[in-house]
Structure formats: structure tokens, C-alpha cells
Task: inverse folding
């Protein structure tokens, strides 16, 4: 039976009379949540992690590409350079192609398209959003996914199909990183430098560098001293483990494996490691909430019945449900849509504006408590060892961490070869030695350490400074934004003509981020196409339009600080140190997409066309 290390675990609060006939005491839960949060708060916040650069650069190497193929540096011109070959870049390329653009070049660090689905090939990888609404351009490519939640290999193949369908391979540059963007005011072009010595130019640049593009490692003392095998889940080492993304990790049959991290990736990896490794230690600071997945193959009769426009209708229906809108039927009907009201704490919308703020907060909190009680009860019904079950229970509000779904993760902790190591009272793993991981003063000897510690979320190349952009008069983008981001609709910034940014800054967000990217790519393509029709010199917002949008963001920004300050540490709240304000559009994605459509139709493009 697996047993967690649970030193210094707090005593649960004494039962109190249950108010309002709820069957639970809200104040007791609030106190428990705060106590659990305080156990995990670290003063170093985000600084507890290391980047996979410098001496840790080998964690970021590409295990999927063969030997590099030398090529001559490019010194040419194209209409549009798209930075990033994930779904954001592919959607930008596809929508631009549909708008009539020919000279489109995707520049991608990896050896092929796919973005996060190119890099992440760990065992069990699937999308956690229904594939029929997550995978873009299904109708355009003529494909219906084989599973309700598609595996990574199917998604990766679809990414390639999109690139082929829209002829995006033609001018693409792979295994290439953009190192600098510099505006040339004499030619009204961007000069684009790369690590391959390229000196290209483009009339327009679309930055689609993604939200999950840079993996991170925990800053554990002694990590360099380990003599066994180490790798990050985003660079899975199948040469060592054997098998593939479907499992069969025969190389681990005589290995003791440590997995550090229990977020969304671990939920999919643990069942395979638990089944195939001789011994698995799962080091957990904070348990994830784990709901039922309900995976199933696509109903072929349903697939044959689909009519044109089906994906947009289904995708819009999903968005309406998860943002609190009213629909006649929930077409997706899964764990996301059944918990829709709880997402307001991280993805606000205006769909509950008819309620007084106090009433809205009360109803949301009670619904949240009820849902989390259900998830904690599920742990008890699945995990047989009481101590392990208690350690796996999530004590926080539902959207403090990204919800997860699995029909096999919790069950894995009933295996005799799997041990949960609770490090919540120790700020994480204490140190790593030549042959062991140390937590709570106990050495766990292992042959292999797998880091499922995630990514620097929401930090694109432009925002992190890894991709410096110099606009008019050589001004750096980050210098221009010293007092905070300044954009119109999140896409373009004054002083940086013809530079378009896909992302969540001063834009909208959703649990289905690919839908966000498609709406953004469609908007950017229409703006660029209109600039061509008008013969505009460049696209750049007026000072008035930019200032008005920044004021709108400030006015409508949801106050998430209080909620996130109460959350257990994680990437949503900056490891317990949340930002003072949100930079997302506070009325939510539905309202944002409507706003963009009206802006385009009602003369808004006059605000960005420089003739």
C-alpha cells in the first residue's frame, strides 16, 4: 500500500454546526484553505524555478530532430513573417492565406510545426479540451478527430495537415530562432535576425510565440550532482524509458523513478510510470483537483451527420456555456461545461452582471465549495489507503489551479509500487544528491528523475525580453511598456508599426485557448488584408485609440487579486504573489469577439491605417 510522507500535517478543523442546510461549514473551509495555502507559500515566489538555459540548456534540447542540416543564411523579403509554428502561428498563416496573402514565412524553433504538441510527447498526452472544439480548422482540412479528447500524436498530425493544406511549409524556416526585430523606417519593413545568421525583411510580423513555450525547472539544491538520468516531461527521453506516447515504457522495468510535480502533465504521466516502473515516487507539493474524464471514441454515426458550420457552432456553444451564457443545449457536456460558473474567478465575463456583486460572490463561493467537496469525496471512493487519500485531496478554490480530468490517475496510487511523497510542509523537495531525492529528511534512492514542473506561463518572447523588438527611432518594446502594456485590442502598439501580437495581454482569454487564437488570427488577417486594399504604408494605432483601449482595460479589469491571494501557490497567481490587476478584457471573450467584429464593420480600421 502506498504511503505519503505527511510530517507536520495540520489537524483538520473541528466540525461545526452546518449553516443554511448546506451540509458543510463555509467558514471552516475558508480556514482550512488558508492553512493549506500558508503551508506552501515560499518567499522566493517565481524565483524558486530555473530557466532551461545556460548550464541547464540540455533540458531544452530537441530530442525529436535529427542532425542539423546546414543552410545558407537568408537575405530576402516576404509579405509576412509569423514567429512560431504552433496553432497560433498556423492559424495566422491559414487566415492570411485565406485573405489572399502569398509571401508567408513561419519561423519555428522546432523541426516541424505543432508548437507545444511538437515538444510534448510524454506518455499519455491528450488534450483536456474536447478535440472537436480544440483542434482548429477541422472543416477546412476535412477531418473529424477519432477521440473526444485527442491524443498528442493525432493533434500533431493535424497540425502538419493544416500546414500542408494552406501551403505553409513552402517558405518555412525550422530549427531557427528569431533573435531580433528592428523596424526600418526608410523602407517601412521589419528586419528580422535569427540564430542561423538570417537577415530577412518583412512588411508585417505576427508574433505567435505561445503561452507554454519555455519549460522551467525547480531550483533544487544539488540538481547538478545527480548521477542518474534526468529530463523534463516536455523533452521526454524515450531512448531511456522505451515505449512511446501510448505507453510500454519497458526501459523502466528495473528502474526507480521520481516524478517531481503533480500538475496537469503528471495527471497523464503517472498512470504509465506507475504501471511500467519498478518503483515510482511522486513528489507532491499541492494536489490537483481530479474529476472524471469520460474518454470515448468518436461516434461515427454522429460524425457522418455533421453539417457545414458544425465546428464553429459547437465551439461557440462551448464558449457560451463556460462563460455563463444561456444556451438551449450544452453540446459538449463534460467536466468543463458542468463547472462553468466556477471559471468566473479566472476568466471573468459580463454574463452575471444582473447580480449584485455581494450576491454573485456568495453564490459562486458556495457552488465552489460544493464542487470541491465532491472532488475530495471522489478521492476517498477511489484511493484505498486513508493517509494517501487525505494527502491527495485539494484544499483550495476550484480555479486556483487548472482543473484536471482522469479516469486512471487516482487509481494508480493503489499500486504497491507507487509512493506519494507529500512535500507541502518543506517548500518542495529539499535537495538532490548523487543518487537520491531528499524530502522531509528522507532520502529516496532513484535511478531517474522526471520533472513535470511546467512552463513559464503567459510569457512570450516579446514580453520576456528573449525576443527584443525595436520600433520607431530604435525604441525597445519593453522600454515603451515600462509603465505597463499599451496596445489597441492587445494586437498592436504605437511606435511598432505592422507588428501584431497574439496572446492574452489586453485581449481576452478562455479555457479553450486555441479558440482565442483563431479569433485573433482572423482579426489580424482582416486588418492586414484591408491595409493592402487601401494601400496603407503601415498599420499602427493612433495615440487616442491606444489610450482609450488601455483605459477600457483598466475600467473593466476584473479584480482577481483578492481571490488569487487566497489561493494555494501556482502559476495562476504567480506562486502566491499575484499581480495587482488583470490585463485581460474584463467583459470576457464573447463580448470581446463581438467588439472586434463591430470595430471592423463600423470604421474602426481607420484608427490603425497610416497612409
Result:
Amino acid at each position: 500500500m502506498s504511503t505519503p510522507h505527511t510530517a507536520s500535517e495540520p489537524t483538520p478543523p473541528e466540525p461545526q454546526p452546518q449553516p443554511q442546510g448546506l451540509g458543510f461549514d463555509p467558514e471552516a473551509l475558508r480556514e482550512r484553505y488558508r492553512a493549506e495555502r500558508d503551508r506552501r507559500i515560499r518567499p522566493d515566489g517565481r524565483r524558486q524555478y530555473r530557466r532551461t538555459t545556460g548550464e541547464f540548456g540540455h533540458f531544452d534540447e530537441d530530442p525529436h530532430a535529427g542532425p542539423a542540416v546546414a543552410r545558407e543564411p537568408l537575405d530576402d523579403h516576404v509579405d509576412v513573417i509569423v514567429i512560431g509554428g504552433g496553432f497560433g502561428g498556423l492559424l495566422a498563416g491559414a487566415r492570411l492565406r485565406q485573405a489572399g496573402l502569398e509571401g508567408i514565412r513561419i519561423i519555428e524553433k522546432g523541426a516541424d510545426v505543432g508548437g507545444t504538441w511538437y515538444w510534448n510527447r510524454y506518455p499519455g498526452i491528450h488534450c483536456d479540451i474536447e478535440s472537436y472544439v480544440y483542434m482548429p480548422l477541422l472543416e477546412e482540412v476535412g477531418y473529424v478527430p477519432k477521440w473526444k479528447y485527442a491524443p498528442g500524436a493525432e493533434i500533431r498530425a493535424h497540425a502538419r495537415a493544416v500546414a500542408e493544406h494552406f501551403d505553409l511549409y513552402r517558405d518555412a524556416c525550422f530549427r531557427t530562432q528569431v533573435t531580433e526585430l528592428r523596424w526600418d523606417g526608410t523602407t517601412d519593413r521589419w528586419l528580422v535576425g535569427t540564430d542561423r545568421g538570417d537577415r530577412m525583411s518583412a512588411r508585417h510580423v505576427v508574433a505567435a510565440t505561445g503561452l507554454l513555450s519555455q519549460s522551467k525547472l525547480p531550483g533544487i539544491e544539488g540538481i547538478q550532482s545527480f548521477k542518474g538520468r534526468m529530463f523534463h516531461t516536455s523533452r521526454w527521453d524515450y531512448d531511456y524509458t522505451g515505449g512511446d506516447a501510448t505507453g510500454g515504457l519497458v526501459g523502466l522495468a528495473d528502474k526507480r523513478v521520481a516524478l517531481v510535480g503533480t500538475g496537469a502533465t503528471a495527471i497523464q504521466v503517472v498512470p504509465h510510470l506507475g504501471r511500467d516502473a519498478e518503483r515510482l515516487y511522486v513528489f507532491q507539493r499541492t494536489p490537483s483537483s481530479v474529476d472524471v474524464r469520460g474518454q470515448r471514441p468518436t461516434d461515427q454515426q454522429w460524425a457522418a451527420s455533421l453539417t457545414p458550420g458544425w465546428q464553429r457552432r459547437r465551439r461557440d456553444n462551448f464558449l457560451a456555456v463556460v462563460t455563463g451564457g444561456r444556451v438551449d443545449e450544452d453540446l459538449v457536456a463534460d467536466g468543463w461545461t458542468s463547472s462553468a460558473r466556477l471559471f468566473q474567478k479566472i476568466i471573468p465575463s459580463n454574463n452575471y452582471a444582473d447580480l449584485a456583486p455581494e450576491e454573485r460572490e456568495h453564490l459562486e463561493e458556495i457552488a465552489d465549495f460544493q464542487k470541491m467537496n465532491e472532488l475530495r469525496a471522489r478521492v476517498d471512493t477511489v484511493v484505498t489507503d486513508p493517509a494517501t487519500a487525505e494527502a491527495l485531496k485539494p484544499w483550495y478554490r476550484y480555479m486556483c489551479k487548472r482543473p484536471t480530468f482522469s479516469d486512471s490517475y487516482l487509481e494508480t496510487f493503489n499500486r504497491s509500487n507507487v509512493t506519494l511523497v507529500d512535500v507541502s510542509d518543506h517548500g518542495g523537495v529539499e535537495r538532490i544528491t548523487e543518487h537520491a531525492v531528499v524530502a522531509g529528511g528522507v532520502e529516496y534512492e532513484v535511478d531517474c528523475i522526471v520533472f513535470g514542473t511546467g512552463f513559464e506561463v503567459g510569457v512570450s518572447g516579446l514580453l520576456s525580453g528573449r525576443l527584443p523588438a525595436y520600433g520607431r527611432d530604435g525604441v525597445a518594446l519593453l522600454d515603451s511598456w515600462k509603465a505597463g502594456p499599451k496596445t489597441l485590442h492587445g494586437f498592436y502598439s504605437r511606435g511598432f508599426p505592422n507588428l501584431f501580437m497574439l496572446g492574452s495581454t489586453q485581449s481576452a482569454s478562455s479555457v479553450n485557448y486555441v479558440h482565442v487564437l483563431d479569433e485573433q488570427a482572423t482579426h489580424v488577417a482582416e486588418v492586414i488584408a484591408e491595409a493592402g486594399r487601401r494601400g496603407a504604408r503601415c498599420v499602427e494605432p493612433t495615440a487616442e485609440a491606444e489610450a482609450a483601449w488601455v483605459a477600457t482595460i483598466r475600467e473593466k479589469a476584473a479584480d482577481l487579486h483578492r481571490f488569487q491571494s487566497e489561493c494555494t501557490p501556482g502559476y495562476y497567481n504567480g506562486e502566491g504573489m499575484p499581480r495587482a490587476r488583470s490585463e485581460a478584457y474584463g467583459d470576457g471573450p464573447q463580448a470581446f469577439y463581438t467588439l472586434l467584429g463591430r470595430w471592423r464593420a463600423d470604421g474602426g480600421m481607420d484608427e490603425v491605417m497610416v497612409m
